[in-house]
Amino acid sequence: MASFGLDLAGLGSSLITKTWHLQRVFDWQLLMLSDFGGTIGYLVSQFCQDITFGDYRISEVSSLKHGAFQRFYAGVQTIDEVTLLFLIPTDNSVMDYFYAWYEKMIDQNGYYYPKNVYKRDVYIALYDRTKVESVRFRLKGCFPKSHPIIHPSYASDGVMMAQVTLSVDIVEPTSLIGDIRSTLTKFVSNSPVGQVAGKLKGFL
């Protein structure tokens, strides 16, 4: 446990200082930029302690019969869900946030709204040793698959946690170094020196 000054109003008031077990070194950070039910997504993101999304997997393998032989081909490779683990603060902002998000999905009659009403993009930023962002994952089309799952127990004196599973359409990784490398490669290729080198390569 460590003392961490959480200034919700931006006033620098010591009265809002609370004790949280937050991540000390920001090797990664969750970024939820959408607000729900009057709760700011960026502040809720700071309570995330663990993120799990597996490798891309082949959802199905289909067969194609051709004469006397049978050929197989892979289906679409997808990541369809992401699991998040959150601390539960005393102001209950994490629970309020995801309950308000869930309410945007289903109307009073139990029917789902169109997906473009409630889907949101979520970001995960990874940092190197110099605290510079190196990789960012964009989780496109996210929405909670259910209400947050909590397991209160008197057997442990640990901080209460909540698990949230998000459905996601696609995961797009981007890299700052990769973008710089791609830009330099295009610049060199379009320069006179690059064009001459390309012609020599083609000739050889």
Describe the protein in words.
The protein has 204 residues and is an alpha+beta fold. It has one domain (2-6, 18-180): Pnp Oxidase, Chain A (Roll). It is 23% helix and 36% strand. A hairpin with a 2-residue loop joins strand 6 (61-66) and strand 7. Helix 4 crosses helix 5 (192-203). The longest helix is centred in the C-terminal third of the chain and has 15 residues, at 176-190. Residues 1-21 have low confidence and may be disordered.
Uncertain residue ranges? 1-21
Amount of helix: 10-25%
What spatial form do the alpha-carbon principal axes imply?
globular
Topology-level CATH name: Pnp Oxidase, Chain A
**Count of spatially separate domains:** 1
Multimeric organization:
single chain
- N-to-C CA distance: 65 Å
Layout of secondary structure:
Elements: E1 2-4, E2 18-20, E3 28-32, H1 41-45, E4 48-52, E5 57-58, E6 61-66, E7 69-74, E8 77-78, E9 81-87, H2 93-103, H3 115-118, E10 120-127, E11 133-144, E12 149-150, E13 161-167, E14 170-175, H4 176-190, H5 192-203
Antiparallel strand pairs: 1-2, 3-10, 4-9, 5-8, 6-7, 9-13, 10-11, 11-13, 11-14, 12-13
Helix pairs in contact: 4-5
